[in-house]
Amino acid sequence: MTTLALNSRRVSTTNEMNDTRDYPSRDTSLVGAAGVHTVVAELSLRGLIALPTIRNTAGVDVIVSNKAGTWHANLQVKTSRSRVSFWPVGTKYAEWVSPKNYYVFLRFYQKIGQFEIFMESSERVAENCATGVKREKEKGLKKWAPCFYPRDRLEQLKSQWDKFGKDTANQPVQPALAVG
Q: Are 126 and 93 in contact (CB under 8 A)?
């Protein structure tokens, strides 16, 4: 019996092989899909409308809104199958900066059998990546994909994820104005 987890919610499934050496999968596209669906499930449980986009939608993995339609955000999800200390974000990070855009970073924590989830604004991610790229260039290092390094801010980023959308999820739907 293998236990899958969505943060604190656990779901048991039968694993006929009872072999967890390759759990989660090494297939990066499947790990990425698991990350997107974990985010969508968590946000849906918070009372938000969370819609995964089709693959290769530029920059946006999840569109999230409250039921009233008065608030929305665009999420870029970055998922790792191990407990990493940084995430590659791609070269277009500066083009994706907007007050409505956020990055959600997931890493699988094998010891507890679930993803840890963190969140940061696109503005802060762009600043962090630009600083890292500049530092690497000054040191004469080989050009790598820009990465987000949260350093000592993981608890703050986890808290931002935990609070995300909760103040807007249950805003009442406003009745339509009569057109007369």
A: yes
Residue 37 has pLDDT above 90, yes or no: yes
In the chain, domain spans = 27-163
Report the amino acid identity of residue 125. Answer: V
Q: What is the pLDDT of residue 108?
A: 92
The pLDDT, as a whole number, for residue 18 is: 47
- Rounded CA-CA distance 30/24 in Å is 9
Nearest-angstrom CA–CA distance, 158 and 105? 9
**Architecture of the domain delimited by 27-163:** 3-Layer(aba) Sandwich (3.40)
- Look up the pTM and report it: 0.82
CA distance 168 to 180: 31
CA distance 87 to 147: 5
pLDDT, tens digit (0-9, with 9 covering 90-100), for 40-57: 999 999 999 999 998 767
